[in-house]
Each structure stands twice: as C-alpha cells, then as structure tokens.
Amino acid sequence: MPLSRRETLAALGVGISSGKLQGQFERALDDIRPDSDLLKHFEDAFNGFQSAARMLRPRQVMDGLLGNVAILDGLRRRAPERDGQRYLSLQARYAELLSWLSEEAGDLSGAMYWIDRASQWAQAASWQAMVEYGFVRRSQVVISFSGDGRRAVDQAHHVFEISNASPRMKGLAARQISYGYALTGNKDASYRSLDEAVSWLDRPVRDDDILVGQRSVGGEDMFAFFQATCRVYLGHGASAIRVLEPRLVSLSRLSLRLVTIACAKLALAYAHAGQPAEACSMAWETLHGMEQVDSLSARSELCRTVRVLDRWHGRHDVQDLTHRLGSRVPVR
Q1: For the residues of 273-313, what is the DSSP string, one character each?
Q2: What is the DSSP letter of 125?
Q3: Which DSSP letter does residue 329 get?
Q4: How far is CA 267 from the centre of its chain?
Q5: What are residue 213's phi and psi, to 5 degrees?
Q6: Domain extents for the chain?
Q7: pLDDT at 182 over 90
Q8: For the segment 30-85, what is each residue's pLDDT rounded down to a tens digit?
C-alpha cells in the first residue's frame, strides 16, 4: 500500500519499514558521526519547531519533526553509550510535541500514539517527569476530543499515585483535575484543585522537568489562563471575561495558537454572560485565527459556544455563525 511521507518517516523512526528504503536510510546514517555537536543541532532544531508550532498549522510542522525523530532513532543506535540517555530524552521531547500537534490537528490516534512513544522513550531514559506528564497529556486529550470531565480527572489523578512525582507535574495534573471538575459542574472541587495547582507550581522546579509541557506563557498570565478556563467551564462568563480579555494582546505576542484558543474561550464566556453579539464577534475572531494555525482546542471551545448560543437561535448573527460552523466544527 502506498504510504504518505508522514507515515514513511514514522515507520522509519520506529523501525517497522523494510526493504530498499530502510537500507538506504541506514546507509545514510552510517556516514554521520553522532557526537555532542550533532545532539546540540537537534536540540536547537526542536526549539525552532516549537516556535513554529505556535504560529503555523500542525501539518506544516509535523513532517520535519517526524524526519528528525527517524534520524535521532537511527543515530541513537550508533552513538556512544554515554550519550544514549540524551538521545532518548530528546526523542521523547519530539514525540510529546508530535502528540500535541496531532491533537491540535484532530488526529486522536496520532495524539495517543506519540504520547505513548514519549512515555516509552522517557522511561528508557529514566526521565520520570516526562513519564508523569504523559498522564497530563492524556487528560488534555480527553477534554479536547470528548469534554468528559470525569475521565479527565481520572487520567490526571494517576500523577499523584506515582511515588515522588515532581511538584510541577503535580501542579499540571491538579490544573487538569480542576478543568475536569469544572466541566462536571463541581465548583468547589474545581476551585480547590485550582488552588492546589497554584501551590504546586509555586514550588522550585526540578532540573528534569523544566523542559516538559507548555512554556510559551508563564507567571501571572499562566495562572490567569488557568483560572479563566475553570470559570468559563463552570458557566461564570463575566468573571472569565475580566481575566482573559485584558491579556489578549500579551498572549498574541507569545503565540498565535494560544491567543486563538483564548479567543475561543472568550466567545464561550460571552455566551455564558448573556452577550450573544460579543460571543459571535469573538467566535469569528477565533475562526480567523484558525485559518492560520488550525486548533482542535479552539474548535472544542466553539462547539460549547454554539450550544450555549442556541438560546438566541432567532438572532441573525447567531444563525450566520451557526451556519458557518456547521461545516467546520463538529457540535458535540
């Protein structure tokens, strides 16, 4: 069966390709010396891919990532033993980014596949923080694809069952738990988990987990984003608007993808606040951003917005938006 370039690169990376292509690939790698300078090259390339992922559509970035995963896997087998863990850790970072981009592209099987690979390579490298983060990622996937708050909580709870889990991973897991409880309407549990997340994330960061997870926004903006997400999921639109709207400009400087997701959350917040005109306006702003970055996270928020806006189904702007979204956003 013919394979796409993406599938071919993935197959080479996990050693399931064979025949002439595999032989050519292996011979090409034999001519490369896997030293520390080469590792630095792939680390720098990863940082570039991460920056590009904040501004471009997932499919525009994934082929390059997959190619590097395939090459890294081959070089690791040829590298000195002392460098083995560094190669595995870098492969895990590439795989985690691939899982996120697959999720944003709406590819559930791809997202889960690369989460598993990231966890597998991290475990082989004795990188516990990335193994723990795998459960945070699974919780994120649950919210993006199904909005099932209970399952999101269950996945994130696994981090707290791991002996000596890092404070940062516990903080990110508690954030996911707060989102899950918010989606189920459990206000007290959601706010309690959010306070717990802030407490864990205020602790010093370990060397092995500083590279894991979302890094495009931090500090007060990060906590504000967490808080606003919980509030909007609970249906508290007005308070979410006060937190999110003043930060749109600063978020736009950091990541087009992140500000597009923030606009989608604001659309939902305006709908909950009983302001359909503003909700529709922000939804159109989100759609404009999605033309450039594509984002399942943003689409999921628009799904929720459409359901709330149905209370004003007689309005022309709501009808226009619903018609536009009908061919673009699966309403769950």
Answers
A1: TT-HHHHHHHHHHHHHHHHHH--HHHHHHHHHHHHHHGGGT
A2: T
A3: S
A4: 20
A5: 90, -175
A6: 1-107
A7: yes
A8: 677 777 788 899 999 999 999 999 999 999 999 889 889 988 988 888 888 888 89
